[in-house]
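User: I'm curious whether this sequence folds into something compact or stays loose and floppy. Could you predict its structure so I can see for myself?
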Amino acid sequence: MARTRSASAHQKVIEAAAELFSQRGIEGASMDAIAEASTVSKATIYKHWADKDALLLEVMEELSGLKARPAFNSGDIRADMIAVLGYHPTEHADLRARIMPQFMAYSAKNPAFGDLWRMRVQDPPRRELTRLLKAAVKSGQLESIHLEHALAQLLGPMIYWYVFLRRTSENPQALAEAVVDMFWRAFSR
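Assistant: Here's the prediction. I'll summarize afterward.
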């Protein structure tokens, strides 16, 4: 009879891997080092994840709050847009800040991984914003817009905040409100 995966071992590996990735970089954190730091055997690790990239993706999902991402469906499209853009889980914030440059560099060197990361981690807010923008146009709240241009106008300032301002300004919610306000003024009917 096959053993079920241990939730405790799984979480220990996620935590150890995240810490090692933030300290040593992704290439510098071997699966052997992760096994040692987590006190979980390498064989058990490979039962949970096919390879290091699969583990990396799950670490990013956890640090990005994707497993507990709230629904953005209050009925108020403008407020939901602000909530999507301002969603910035505080849990693991320091670790996420330390590891993000490692993930960006690794994604640049490994385009296939970068594509998977964008699809699993970065696409949820894009899909949510797309749904909200379509609903706003359909309801007549916003004029007809080019969706990709609108997403760039909404997400661009948030990425700018994360890359350049995060250390000096810890309030993405205020920026999200300002971005949506400007967008709404430009495109509302």
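Summary: DSSP finds nine helices and no strands in the chain. The first helix runs from residue 7 to 24.
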